[in-house]
Amino acid sequence: MNYRMFKVINQLAGHNRIVDFLMVTISKRSRFIYILVVIVLWFRHDSYKKMTLYTGVSVSVTYLLCTMIKLFFYKPRPFLKHSVHLLPPVPSKKDSSFPSKHTALAFTLAASVMVFHRIAGWSLWLLSILVGFSRIWMGQHYPSDIIGSAILGNGTAFVVKLTEQYWKPFVTRIFRSFTQFRSSYREL
C-alpha cells in the first residue's frame, strides 16, 4: 500500500516541467516562507517574541530527534529499491528515508506558529502538506515517511509547549547571558 501510494504520486513527476519546478521549489525554498512569517510576527507585536523562542526550541528538538532517529534507524529511500522518477537534488544513498527532515521541520514550525497566530499557523500547516507531498513527488520519501514526519513535527511542538515551564528558564538564561556578553563585547 505504501509503495502503491508512492507510485501514484511519483509517476506524475517528469511529465510537466512547470509542476516539477514548483515541487522542487516548494521542497527546497519553502523554509524561507516559514522564516519570513516568524520574522514578520516577531516585529508585529511583543507577544510574538515568545512565539519565536518557542518555535526555536521546537525546531531544535525536532532537528535533534530527526538526526538521532536517522543514526539508529535506517530505511532505504524509494529510489534505492524501485525505479522512480527522481528529481534533483538527489540525497545520499546513506541517508535514511525516515524521517523526512524537511517535512518534520515544516510541521513543527507550522504547529508552533499556530499556537500564537491561528491564520498564519494554518497557512503554514497547508504549506507543510505541500512540502511533504513534494518530497514524494520528487521520489525521495514514501508516504509513510511523510505521515510519520508530520506526526513527529506536530508532536514535538505539542510536547515542547506542554513542557515550557521546564525549559523556558534555562533557554531564557542562555539568551540573557548571550545578550550580556554581546553588550560587554561592544564596549571593548
Automatic annotation (TrEMBL):
<feature type="domain" description="Phosphatidic acid phosphatase type 2/haloperoxidase">
    <location>
        <begin position="52"/>
        <end position="161"/>
    </location>
</feature>
<feature type="transmembrane region" description="Helical">
    <location>
        <begin position="51"/>
        <end position="73"/>
    </location>
</feature>
<dbReference type="InterPro" id="IPR036938">
    <property type="entry name" value="PAP2/HPO_sf"/>
</dbReference>
<dbReference type="GO" id="GO:0050380">
    <property type="term" value="F:undecaprenyl-diphosphatase activity"/>
</dbReference>
<dbReference type="InterPro" id="IPR033879">
    <property type="entry name" value="UPP_Pase"/>
</dbReference>
<keyword id="KW-0472">Membrane</keyword>
<dbReference type="GO" id="GO:0005886">
    <property type="term" value="C:plasma membrane"/>
</dbReference>
<dbReference type="InterPro" id="IPR000326">
    <property type="entry name" value="PAP2/HPO"/>
</dbReference>
<protein>
    <submittedName>
        <fullName>PAP2 family phosphatase</fullName>
    </submittedName>
</protein>
<dbReference type="Pfam" id="PF01569">
    <property type="entry name" value="PAP2"/>
</dbReference>
<keyword id="KW-1133">Transmembrane helix</keyword>
<feature type="transmembrane region" description="Helical">
    <location>
        <begin position="103"/>
        <end position="126"/>
    </location>
</feature>
<feature type="transmembrane region" description="Helical">
    <location>
        <begin position="21"/>
        <end position="45"/>
    </location>
</feature>
<keyword id="KW-0812">Transmembrane</keyword>
